[in-house]
Amino acid sequence: MTNITERDVIDLCGLVGKILLENGAETARVENTVEYIGQAAQFPVSCHATMTAVFVDSKTNPNTHFVKVRVGDFNLQKVDDINTLSRQFTAHEIDYAQLKTGIAAIDRKVIDFNWLEKIIGAGLVSVAPMLLFKATWTDLAWALFVGILGYLGTQLATHKITTPYVSVALGGFIISLCATLLQLSGWATSADNIIISALMPLVPGVALTNSLRELIGKHTISGLVRAADAIMVAGSIGAGVIVGSVLAQILMGGAS
Length: 256
Known about the structure:
Threonine/serine exporter-like N-terminal domain-containing protein, 2 domains, membrane, transmembrane transporter activity, transmembrane, ThrE-like_N, three-stranded antiparallel beta sheet
């Protein structure tokens, strides 16, 4: 600990806060983790986190460390990795050098699944709700493939389109169009069941959960921002579903 400066600790805490916010952690977790690390390093700091920035300052001088955060795709694996390291450090299981090295490695690490794993995961998530609907085996099979198509459409659009919410709207459109066409053509029994199930990979579940946690923890601004973002995503999905259903009915009506 003798070679550690207060500035080093504040800089590292700022990086920790940035990683946590960027990967889906709620602001209360960010603030608590940063302050625990500072206390364990014997340089107590205070932290204030918003949706787009982290402020870390020392309790012994007026200097403030500001980190701008760009929130996009999140990865809860990085949040768990940071939490694990911070707990080990506060429990004195690792020293400051190991903590700093581990955090830098997590920041550089790209945690992702290959396309086959993503497709299988999206298909399984799409099938699960069908069990609640007591759907036919045919509809269950269609939900698998429609969910995969919607997920792939969303992911491909995300890499091509920078406008927010368009990619999830496209995913909802693809799912609704396919499900409605399947029902109108007589190949499926219930388009509604297929749509509801196939939309599950697109639903902003983490955003909704975090918004509620923020509001319960009295982080009102962050909670409302997260809730507004989740509502916008849900609204975009709904708009895509409506357009897809109407277009399918027009196509089948014209065909008949």
